[in-house]
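Render this sequence as a predicted structure.
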Amino acid sequence: MRTHTSSGAPRITQRLLRRVTDPTTGHVS
């Protein structure tokens, strides 16, 4: 799995990755 998804990945993937990276600010919107 790639950690840096700047281009080519949907926002859903970026949000999921961010949630994994930042569990403190990983609230389900």
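Summary. DSSP finds one helix and no strands in the chain. Residues 5 and 15 are 10 Å apart (CA to CA).
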